[in-house]
TrEMBL record:
Keywords noted in UniProt: Signal
The protein's name in its UniProt record: Outer membrane protein beta-barrel domain-containing protein
Organism: Faecalibacter macacae
Domain of life: Bacteria
Record's signal peptide: 1-22
């Protein structure tokens, strides 16, 4: 019985992954919520991304810190652009690797860069991690 249940779950997951795409190109929309363990402080992150081409998305977001560094405010508001490489690197469709740039405001103008990775668990829900001048990890949903 356990083997049958295990096989059924694996079959359902593989069917789900066959349709799931971490980045679909123009018109793709994502909302991400995560933890910020490094950067201007420790806190929470909210990000929106919108696909404008097969490899480029733009968006914006905010980070709100519980314990910010003394020379910075308790927030960082930013705009960003990502370059999605998953298809070019022949990654499975439920995975995406993307370098990106951002410009924002926190006690002045901030510039940053990051490298991100997304993994889609189903058609709509996945996990992400971004590391660079700031970083975050959390969950995202496809809209």
């Amino acid at each position: 019985m356990k083997k049958l249940l295990f096989t059924a779950v694996l079959t359902l997951l593989s069917f789900n992954f066959a349709n799931a795409q971490a980045y679909t190109g123009s018109g793709d929309q994502k909302v991400s919520l995560g933890l910020v363990p490094w950067g201007y402080g420790t806190g929470l992150s909210a990000i929106y991304d919108y696909g404008i081409s097969d490899i480029i998305s733009v968006g914006g977001g905010g980070e709100f810190y519980f314990g910010g560094k003394e020379d910075h405010d308790d927030f960082y508001i930013f705009g960003r652009a990502n370059f999605h490489l998953g298809e070019m690197l022949n990654m499975p469709s439920n995975m995406d690797l993307y370098p990106g740039l951002d410009i924002g405001f926190n006690s002045g103008i901030g510039l940053g860069a990051h490298l991100g990775f997304r993994y889609l668990f189903s058609d709509n829900i996945g996990a992400y991690i971004e590391a660079g001048s700031r970083g975050s990890l959390g969950v995202f949903i496809n809209l």
